[in-house]
Amino acid sequence: MDHKAEPKEKIVNTIADTSFLPECWSDDRRMGILLAEFRPRQLNAASYDAKMKFWKDLIHSFCKASGSSVISISGLKEQFRRKGTVPYCLQTVLLDMLAKRELCKEGQLKVEQHTGPFGFNLWTAKQLIKAPLLWGYEVVLGSVTGTVNINENENFIVVAVAQQHAKTIERTIMERELYNKLLQYEDLVDLFNKTSSITRHGVEQALALLETCNRLTKQIIVCGGTSTVFIKFAGVNTVAQPITNIEKCIYELEQSENRLMKDITTVEQNISQTMNMVREYITDGRKQMAKTYLKKKKYSKKICNKKLTLWKTCRGFC
């Protein structure tokens, strides 16, 4: 399958499953307080911090349940709408997460490249995400001046969830011994949709994180007029290596082999159908038509043999 770049869009990531919601979700009085905007922290620091923790934990639980680390305020409002009321405190929660680097803007996972022979599981959260100070500086400055206001439709990445997804992906790659091999992006998406709860958006951000840590190489390869995104994962305790020309050639040969096999199968089916027609014409006494179809069968057989020779040649190189 081919992966085509799509324009960035608003992701309203909502799910029908509500099993991740806390027990207090049914408590009208309690939820009335939690859904409301934050009161100044200096009035009651313990209450403020408990409410902040509640929403951060809930956002993490939702991301894990939905299989994606991508969130937006508008999407969270819809997901956490309760009896017609949406949370009014999400601006404060996301600003705090941004300031503490628990959240980053979509696309910022690629800001820095780490080098060194490390496995992904050896990196701590701080080592994994060493974003520029600008990540939190704007938020901290704005919280003091009162000028920051997050666009409710802007997408953000919950870093801890992206890290968890990245670990799951790399563990699967190691277990299946898929490292140091060319893998199609779409095949990876299908694999993790089937073997885990990670969605396409979850896979995309996890791969971006792994690429940042030099745990994989990504490249677009054009073959037969079609652009395909390929991923090559690094092995244990190594860094990702570039996709080589030899690997590209092997891939192109494998693609040619697959196309030839499909062509051979089609021609063989045509030959079989042609022979059925020959038998029918002989039965009906229409010998001339039978001869015509025999010639057609002979021509198809010649084409089939040529393609079979090419297929064997490709297979020999692969």
What is the domain tally? 3
Mind describing the biggest β-sheet?
3 strands, antiparallel
Q: Report mean pLDDT, rounded to a whole number.
A: 81
Q: Please give the alpha-carbon distance between the first and last residues.
A: 21 Å
Spatial extent as radius of gyration: 28 Å
Q: Which term fits the overall shape?
A: elongated
Residue share in helices?
A: 40-55%
> Which consecutive residue ranges, at least 5 long each, have pLDDT under 50?
1-9, 111-137
Number of helices: 11
Beta-strand content: 5-15%
How many beta-strand segments?
Answer: 6
What is the strand arrangement across the widest sheet? Answer: 1-3-2
Structure commentary:
It contains 11 helices and 6 strands. The strands form 2 sheets. The chain has a 3-stranded antiparallel sheet with strand order 1-3-2. Residues 1-9 and 111-137 have low confidence and may be disordered. The protein is elongated, with a radius of gyration of 28 Å. It has helices spanning 28-35, 45-66, 73-79, 90-99, 125-128, 134-145, 159-175, 185-195, 200-212, 245-283, 287-317, and strands spanning 70-71, 103-105, 156-158, 183-184, 216-223, 226-233. It starts with 27 loop residues before the first helix and ends with a helix. It has 3 domains: 28-111 and 130-156, Arc Repressor Mutant, subunit A; 163-241, Arc Repressor Mutant, subunit A; 248-316. A hairpin with a 2-residue loop joins β5 and β6. With 318 residues, it is mainly alpha-helical. α4 (90-99) crosses α6 and α7 packs across α9 (200-212). The longest helix has 39 residues, at 245-283.
